[in-house]
Amino acid sequence: MADDGRSLSLLAQFELDAQTAAVLELPRAGLLTIFYDSVGAPWLARQDALHVELFAESVTTTVSTPDDCDRFDEVGVALSEAELPRLGVPAPGGIETFCAVQEALDPRQAPLSFLGGHAFPLQEPMEDVCAEVEPSVLAADWRLLLQLDTDRGPGFSWGSGSGRLYVWLPHEDLRRGVFDRVVAIVQDT
C-alpha cells in the first residue's frame, strides 16, 4: 500500500532457482516479487511506494487487480549471463567480443529490461542519489536489482512515456535477502 492508501501494482515476479539466486547474489532461491505505485509514479520512491519481497517458496494464488492500480500484461523472461571483457588492452578477439556484447545490449534499443546487472541510465548515474536517500550506505555499495524500460507490450510507461524505472538496494541487503532499504528511480529522455 502507498502512503495515501492506494494499492501498489505488481511489476514483476521472478521464480529463482539456486543457480539464478547465486548469479544475483541472493541468499536463496524463491519467488522475488516487486510492487510499485505505478499510478502515482514517483520519480523517487522508497517503501511508501515500493515493496520488494523474496518468498522462500513459490505460491500460486489468483487475485484480482484492485481498481486503484495498473494492471500489466504478463511477459516471460529468461536469465542470460554474460561476462564482459576487462577494459584496457584487449586480448586477441577481445575487442570483437566487447563490440558484440555492446551491440546486443545497446541502451538505445528499447525495451531494455532486466534483473540484476548494470544499469543503462538515461541521465546521470543513480548511486549517488541512492546514497543521499540512505546516507548509511555509500554510493559504491548500491546494486541494481531491476531495470524496467518503457514497453508497450506489457503496458509499462515511465516518465513521459520513454523512460525507465530502476530499483536499487544496498549490496549487503541483497546478499542477506533483506529489502527494507530499496529505492526506485525513474529517469526519462
Task: Summarize the structure in words.
The chain starts with 8 loop residues before the first strand and ends with a strand. With 189 residues, the protein is an alpha+beta fold. The protein has helices at residues 18-24, 94-104, 127-133, 171-176; strands spanning 9-16, 30-36, 44-45, 50-55, 114-115, 142-149, 164-170, 183-187. Helix content is 16%, strand content 24%. The model has no long low-confidence stretch (mean pLDDT 80).
Q: In order across it, which strands form the biggest sheet?
A: 3-8-7-6-5
Mean of all residue-level pLDDT scores: 80
Q: How do the SSEs run, as a string of H and E?
A: EHEEEHEHEEHE
Given helix and strand content, the structural type is alpha+beta
Structure keywords:
single chain, 16% helix, three-stranded antiparallel β-sheet, 4 helices, five-stranded antiparallel β-sheet, alpha+beta, 189 residues
Describe the SSE topology.
Elements (H helix, E strand, L loop, with lengths): L8 E8 L1 H7 L5 E7 L7 E2 L4 E6 L38 H11 L9 E2 L11 H7 L8 E8 L14 E7 H6 L6 E5 L2
Antiparallel strand pairs: 1-2, 2-4, 3-8, 5-6, 6-7, 7-8
What does this entry show, briefly?
The chain is α+β, with helices and mostly antiparallel strands.
